[in-house]
Amino acid sequence: PAALVWLRRDLRCDDHSALYHALRRFPRVYCAFVFDTDILDALPTRCDRRVEFIHASVVELHQHLQQLARESGSPGGGLIVRHGPAVPCIVQLARELGVQEVLANRDYEPAAMARDCQAAQALHAAGIAFSDYKDQVLLEKNEVLTRQGQPFSVFTPYKRAWLEKLDAFQRTPYPVQRYARHLAALPDEAPLPTLQALGFMPTNLRTLALPTGMSGARQLLQDFLPRLPAYHEARDFPGRKGVSYLSVHLRFGTVSIRQLAALAARQAATGCQGAQTWLSELAWRDFYFMILWHHPQVITQAFRPEYGHVQWDEAPALWQAWCEARTGYPLVDAAMRQLLQTGYMHNRLRMVVASFLTKDLGIDWRRGERFFARHLNDYDLAANNGGWQWAASTGCDAQPYFRIFNPVTQSQKFDPEGRFIRRYLPELAHVPDKHLHFPAAMKPAELAACGLRLGVDYPQPIVDHAQARTRTLLRFQR
Ligand code: FAD
Known about the structure:
- The protein is of the alpha/beta class.
- The chain has 22 helices and 5 strands.
- The chain has 3 domains: 1-132, Rossmann fold; 139-171 and 214-294, Alpha Horseshoe (Serine Threonine Protein Phosphatase 5, Tetratricopeptide repeat), CATH 1.25.40.80; 305-477, DNA Cyclobutane Dipyrimidine Photolyase, subunit A, domain 3 (Orthogonal Bundle), CATH 1.10.579.
- Helices cover 48% and strands 6% of the residues.
- Strand 1 (2-7), helix 1 (17-25) and strand 2 form a beta-alpha-beta unit.
- The structure holds flavin-adenine dinucleotide.
- Flavin-adenine dinucleotide binds next to helix 10, helix 12, helix 15 and helix 17.
């Protein structure tokens, strides 16, 4: 008997749920990844950091699987890689290999669930079983419910219940290596496709501090662990190295969420505040996956239906300025440049720019959500939708609509010396700290002293925050 493990957003071979179950139950196990043309063809560009990240991580995973097999004395190992529409590719491969079952880790996005449903049906029609496993999250679906048996829609009580449920068992890694001798020898396969063979061009990924694959995740984690105790204090300052930068690895599963939770929970139990706060962030991640699974309509609709009636503005010029980092509010512009140049944006800044788009510019959160979807390396439908609806005040447990971030005071508070702003807006390098957060307030002599020509070197503010705030209050009250 043989099985095929179909990897998708779980590009690792340690603590891997589906792989562990396959190896434990079957004496011959193949692993495959499909570069899914249904997804790739829909991308607006042939130059996408995420495709390059996945490609590099797949190449590395192939080597890790070979090594895992070697170490366990198996002649097999390695990853079968295909390029085409995922479902037909997997069905055909399962037939070619003569497997009895295809195993995969569960996905919670509606499109992915529909794909898996289709795959299960097609496989069953060919006499092949399909099974899926929890791996991507710590606690899924209905595992955390209110006392009345309902899904939570407020984070704090959810987190309390989540922490109670998150016992040692839920954090225990799957010991893949115990059965790694069952990794099967690959059939005669063509070498792994290059990025170019997939129809994609290299991006600037190699120049970023973003190591790929399982080794990249390990490197970032090692770098973060000494900083974990200070996470709660440092996490809000984009100019400091306070966060883990692991989101893209969690997105593509090059690191196991159980491993991270186990590390955090161990330290949190000793009273480490940084670890407690970080564990809460992992809870937010599960929370939004849970929300998306229970309420898939949030993809296009406000979580709170009464906010579905908010009338947003078209504002093409304002939208363009936001997208192109030309708003005249330095923290917003620096954040948008970080996104465009690196595909990452600090959490505090995601909140600031999302608030700015929806509350200062009056533009529909869905447009911002789609823009992030195109540009974020770590783009995740559940977290991104949750974050946008939070900032727009339309979501579950969202920021109340009358709490409107002031982009200038946010800047003064979270980038006081302008370290972050200066990194991404070199044109403001010589502006004194006290004016850096809002250069438009400078007097002509002050502008001349630092050689800044407003409207030439750096834009005038595209809106007046105080007026925008009033308009937003009216918009929401209506
Ligand atoms: P750390 O601070 O080190 O946190 C560790 C991990 O916890 C993160 O990697 C992430 O998996 C999880 N996490 C942290 N904060 C949140 C949160 N608020 N919601 C859900 N999970 C969280 N996160 C994404 O992974 N993908 C997205 O597409 C995404 N879009 C967002 C859009 C908006 C408007 C907002 C406000 C937030 C969004 N987030 C998203 C959440 C958060 O900003 C990122 O997870 C975080 O900045 C990633 O950096 P990090 O790995 O260094 O985080």
